[in-house]
């Protein structure tokens, strides 16, 4: 402090001593996840307020909150996987198709028989393996085949859904394994198992992205692949791992969708790729890679699901929902670009 | 068109500043209609910046530009094109998928009521190409399928289609073989006969003597001589003008390298077709070996091949006597080789990431247990290094983007210091580093060597290579033309070697 302040009790000096830590705190806040996601949180809160005003008695109930979370869970898990791929500089258009294929494969008569005879874990394993295998193919095509991610995963989108149709003969496969439906359709501590899975996947995703070498390398590969390569990172192998991770998330999402609908179907996961990309992007993950946030993605998913819920409760059409969704995407991205520009200068 | 011999362009007192660097500090240039005016200067002398000012890509901070005795403002590349100034860069600005005719009239297509008149374009394109003496180039071929020389002609045809009165050519011969160069000269002579002025930039003195009329020499962002006769000015005089620096860098004293010091890096018969051939050298612990040569002499390519980022056609690299698997960055890094690449921003740094993350990116395993990173330990280690290297501003959490060039370079060096490198490959370590920070980087490099690291240094500044290295390898067109102690050769001799290829 400057020497001309002689009386420590005067208000100016107390202000002067208080201000620096305060600005430092706010700066740290802005850099931390909470600060960066503040806009999103505000948007979600506004949406909730609209919900309470327009459909107060039905919106603000515990049951409705759980409904929103249950609906958000499946696309949420897919979006966590998508966050990794996009942060690593790629994109995955095949997530919806992978969910469909995994759900069909895990509900074939043979798999269900195996599950009924032994344990439902066989259905889960099948879904996870199918998802991861599709992701592996995506990753190999992108990393070693040098096919741009958009095209490689577009091909997977077509092929996986086609394969799902062939396996299921375009028929919806009803799940008859009661233990499976009971477990995943049930609740734990009053919260649906599906929501628990979503929370676990999101938490694990956050830890991996922010606290592990794998996460750090993901940022490096997505931010500057050439620099990452010259720094000694195995860029190709890492890229494969990212797509496998996305595929694995689709496998988990397939299990959740099977539990929610008690079916496996080649029509599951329709347009999930667009919903997931939208949630990831409004969450603040850079589509060009190098910057990604799981918290943002989760809030992004919640915003879209809450929007759906509010519109449904007010008996508004799905078409009106789509228009609102489009508007939200544009506004969110415009705001982000403003913020990015102001923080760079 | 102007009368040949009359003053076409006069630039006086051009000043251009970038943050921390005064790239141009009072440049004068006058070009007459119908002449080939050569621009000569070492790397970093300001040639590229001057061209960007002339073609409207940069706005000068001071100085005047007069065209035909009228002061002009070149606010944008479009403004320059409208005034008849065109440039042909080394990386040609053509669209490879479009045809020759489409490229020539790109942005200026003959049309009526919005419909393009392809036939008219073809006819006109043919006329222009014939005028350039290259009627054999088919106007319907895609530009991408033409050889480099053909693409250059198309680029010139485009300039002419816009009635260019002044064409800047930035090292046009760099991508051409000798046969094509004589073709290029024929085209240039045809242009000047029509009163077009050409500003010609080349490092090859023999070309300047063949095609040039007058020479302007730049050094440290200022004109040191202008209007020299291109044919009769002695080579010695030109080199003296280009070197004789006004700023003297202080180089740290060399270490004594004991004859018992082990050889760490051995490069044996390394070749890549079209880039370099038969490159051999070795570096002992504590030694700095400098590779000198022009852009395109294969310096950076050699370095990247040693690092495994390019796969050699022949030869191999040994570290501590053990041959590395060729073409594998992983193998090189594992053996203890580190690279500070030429393009710091695109090849080394994660600009938006924090300083500490940039430093630890090659040593993440060391800060992790079971894959989980210990951020605290990472920051500690990075903070210790940034203190030692005096990286400013202090703070390992700020994005690297906020640092100056010199401090960014220190971050790259810190990355490899953390890894305890045995071999460090430095490609243009002081590019974009301002004068003050240079000597710091020099001292740092020397200290590293003193600690037993084997260092290979590439720089386009001859003074830097000679001042910093213990031994130098001079490259010309992908071949080593001289190897010897740095103190036994001077800047003039090196420039002689790289520019003329004559024996010392």
Structure description:
The complex is a heterodimer of chains A (345) and B (504). Chain A has 345 residues and is mainly α. Chain A has one domain: Orthogonal Bundle (ABC transporter involved in vitamin B12 uptake, BtuC). Helix content of chain A is 77%, strand content 2%. Chain A contains 16 helices and 4 strands. In chain A, a hairpin with a 2-residue loop joins strand 2 (187-188) and strand 3 (191-192). The longest helix of chain A has 27 residues, at 235-261. Chain A is globular, with a radius of gyration of 23 Å. Chain A starts with 10 loop residues before the first helix and ends with a helix. Chain B has 504 residues and is of the alpha/beta class. Chain B folds into 3 domains: 7-242, P-loop containing nucleotide triphosphate hydrolases (Rossmann fold, 3-Layer(aba) Sandwich), CATH 3.40.50; 263-336 and 421-500, Rossmann fold; 344-402, no CATH class. The chains are: A mainly alpha (345), B alpha/beta (504). The interface between A and B is medium-sized, with 25 and 29 residues.
Query: What is the CATH T-level topology of chain A?
Result: ABC transporter involved in vitamin B12 uptake, BtuC
Task: Provide the structure class of chain A.
Answer: mainly alpha
Are there runs of chain A of 5+ residues with pLDDT below 50, and where?
A: 1-33
Secondary structure tally: strands of chain A: 4
Query: Class of chain A in CATH?
Result: Mainly Alpha
What is the radius of gyration of chain B? 25 Å
Distance between the termini of chain B: 46 Å
Assign the CATH architecture of chain A: Orthogonal Bundle
- Per CATH, the class of the largest domain in chain B reads Alpha Beta
Beta-strand percentage range of chain B: 25-35%
**Helix content estimate of chain B:** 25-40%
């Amino acid at each position: 402090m400057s020497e001309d302040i002689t009386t420590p009790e005067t208000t100016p000096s107390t202000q002067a001593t208080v201000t620096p830590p305060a600005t430092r705190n706010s700066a740290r806040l802005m850099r931390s996840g909470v600060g960066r996601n503040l806009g999103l949180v505000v948007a979600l809160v506004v949406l909730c307020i609209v919900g309470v005003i327009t459909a107060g008695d039905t919106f603000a109930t515990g049951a409705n909150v759980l409904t929103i979370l249950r609906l958000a869970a499946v696309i949420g898990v897919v979006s966590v996987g998508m966050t990794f791929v996009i942060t690593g500089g790629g994109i995955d258009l095949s997530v919806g198709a992978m969910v469909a294929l995994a759900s069909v494969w895990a509900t074939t008569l043979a798999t269900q028989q195996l599950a009924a005879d032994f344990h439902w874990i066989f259905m889960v394993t099948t879904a996870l393996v199918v998802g991861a295998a599709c992701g592996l193919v995506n990753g190999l095509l992108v990393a070693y085949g040098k096919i741009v991610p958009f095209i490689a995963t577009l091909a997977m989108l077509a092929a996986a859904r086609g394969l799902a149709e062939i396996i299921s003969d375009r028929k919806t496969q009803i799940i008859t394994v009661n233990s499976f439906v009971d477990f995943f359709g049930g609740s734990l501590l009053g919260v649906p198992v599906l929501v628990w899975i979503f929370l676990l996947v999101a938490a694990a995703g956050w830890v991996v992205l922010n606290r592990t070498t794998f996460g750090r390398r993901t940022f490096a590969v997505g931010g500057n692949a050439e620099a990452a390569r010259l720094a000694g990172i195995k860029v190709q192998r890492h890229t494969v791992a990212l797509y496998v991770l996305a595929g694995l998330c689709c496998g988990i999402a397939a299990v959740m969708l099977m539990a929610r609908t008690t079916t496996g179907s080649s029509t599951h996961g329709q347009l999930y790729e667009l919903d997931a990309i939208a949630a990831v992007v409004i969450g603040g993950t850079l589509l060009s890679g190098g910057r990604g946030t799981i918290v943002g993605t989760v809030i992004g998913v919640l915003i879209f699901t809450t929007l759906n819920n509010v519109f449904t409760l007010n008996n508004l059409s799905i078409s009106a929902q789509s228009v609102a969704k489009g508007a939200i995407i544009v506004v969110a991205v415009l705001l982000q670009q403003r913020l990015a520009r102001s923080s760079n200068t | 068109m102007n009368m040949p011999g009359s003053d076409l362009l006069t630039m006086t007192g051009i000043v251009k500043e970038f943050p921390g660097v005064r790239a141009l500090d009072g440049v004068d240039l006058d070009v007459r209609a119908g002449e080939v005016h050569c621009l000569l200067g070492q790397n970093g002398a300001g040639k590229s910046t001057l061209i960007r000012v002339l073609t409207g890509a940069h706005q000068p901070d001071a100085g005047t530009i007069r065209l035909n005795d009228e002061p002009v403002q070149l606010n944008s590349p479009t403004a320059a094109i409208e005034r008849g100034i065109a440039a042909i860069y080394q990386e040609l600005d053509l669209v490879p998928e479009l045809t020759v005719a489409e490229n020539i009239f790109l942005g200026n297509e003959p049309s009526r009521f919005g419909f393009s008149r392809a036939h008219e374009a073809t006819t006109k394109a043919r006329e222009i190409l014939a005028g350039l003496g290259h009627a054999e180039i088919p106007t319907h071929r895609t530009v991408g399928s033409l050889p480099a020389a053909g693409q250059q002609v198309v680029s010139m045809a485009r300039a002419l289609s816009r009635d260019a009165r002044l064409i800047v050519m930035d090292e046009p011969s760099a991508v051409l073989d000798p046969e094509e160069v004589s073709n290029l000269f024929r085209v240039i002579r045809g242009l000047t006969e029509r009163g077009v002025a050409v500003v010609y930039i080349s490092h090859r003195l023999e070309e300047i003597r063949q095609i040039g009329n007058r020479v302007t020499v730049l050094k440290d962002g200022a004109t040191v001589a202008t209007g020299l006769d291109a044919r009769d000015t002695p080579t010695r005089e030109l080199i003296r003008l280009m070197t004789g620096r006004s700023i003297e860098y202080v180089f740290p004293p060399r270490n004594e390298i004991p004859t018992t010091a082990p050889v760490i890096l051995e490069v044996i018969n390394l070749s890549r077709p079209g880039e370099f051939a038969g490159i051999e050298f070795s570096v002992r612990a504590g030694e700095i070996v400098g590779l000198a040569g022009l852009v395109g002499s294969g310096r950076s390519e050699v370095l990247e091949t040693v690092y495994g980022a390019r796969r050699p056609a022949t030869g191999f690299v040994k570290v501590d006597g053990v041959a590395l698997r060729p073409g594998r960055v992983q193998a090189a890094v594992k053996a203890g080789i580190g690279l500070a690449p030429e393009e710091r921003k695109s090849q080394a740094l994660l600009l938006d990431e924090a300083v500490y993350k940039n430093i630890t990116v090659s040593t993440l395993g060391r800060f992790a247990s079971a894959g989980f990173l210990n951020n605290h330990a990472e920051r500690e280690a990075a903070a210790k290094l940034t203190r030692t290297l005096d990286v400013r501003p202090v703070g390992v959490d700020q994005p690297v983007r906020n640092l100056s060039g010199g401090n960014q370079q220190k971050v790259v060096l810190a990355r490899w210091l953390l890894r305890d490198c045995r071999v460090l490959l430095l490609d243009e370590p002081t590019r974009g580093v301002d004068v003050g920070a240079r000597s710091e980087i020099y001292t740092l490099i020397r200290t590293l060597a003193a600690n037993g690291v084997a260092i290979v240094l590439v720089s386009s500044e001859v003074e830097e290579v000679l001042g910093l290295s213990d031994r130098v390898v001079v490259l010309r067109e992908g071949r080593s033309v001289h190897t010897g102690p740095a103190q036994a050769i001077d800047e003039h001799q090196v420039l002689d070697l790289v520019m003329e290829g004559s024996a010392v």
